[in-house]
Amino acid sequence: MYGAQEEQPLLSGAEPVLYVTDFPAALAFYTRKLGFALDITYGDPPFYGIVQRDRARLCLRLVEGPVFAGDVREREELLSASITLDSAAAIERLFLDYQAADVPFHLALTTQPWGARNVIVRDPAGNLILFAAPGD
């Protein structure tokens, strides 16, 4: 695909778009409960924004109604984003911080059969966000 002299493109990150039905509530959840900082908002009133915590960035996009029908998102555990942490100790600390902030969990801190440590939170719009770390 690329010649020997051409450098292949480097993918430097991903910014999942989360569809939300109440933009102010979503923004408050990500900044006040999950510890993200507001990067930008767009529109008057805002209908799009980006929040960031460390190297993780999430885009929030206002929509008029639910994106998924019924309970399929929870039943099938359809993740809207996956964020990785560097260690089991880091995810344990994050879980305790989120627990203290009364963040709603779809999945509390769990060790998967393959060794990964996972937490899944549910935002006000029902988006499921996976936080994952390698096991020790």
Structure in a nutshell:
The protein is of the alpha/beta class. The protein has three helices and eight strands. The strands form two sheets. Strands 1-4-3-2 form a four-stranded mixed sheet, with helices on one face.
SS content category: alpha/beta
H/E element sequence: EHEEEHEHEEE
The CATH superfamily label reads 2,3-Dihydroxybiphenyl 1,2-Dioxygenase, domain 1
Structurally, the number of domains stands at 1
In the CATH hierarchy, what is the architecture at level 2? Roll
**Biggest pleated sheet:** 4 strands, mixed
Considering DSSP H and I runs of 4 or more, what fraction of the residues is helical? Answer: 10-25%
Tally of DSSP helical segments:
3
Q: Radius of gyration over alpha carbons?
A: 17 Å
CATH topology-level fold name: 2,3-Dihydroxybiphenyl 1,2-Dioxygenase, domain 1
**CATH class, anyone?**
Alpha Beta
**Low-confidence parts, pLDDT < 50 over ≥5 residues?**
none
Strand order of the largest sheet: 1-4-3-2
What is the terminal separation in angstroms? 38 Å
| Overall mean pLDDT | 92
Q: Based on DSSP secondary structure assignment, what is the total number of beta strands?
A: 8
Shape: globular
Query: What percentage of amino acids are in beta strands?
Result: 35-45%
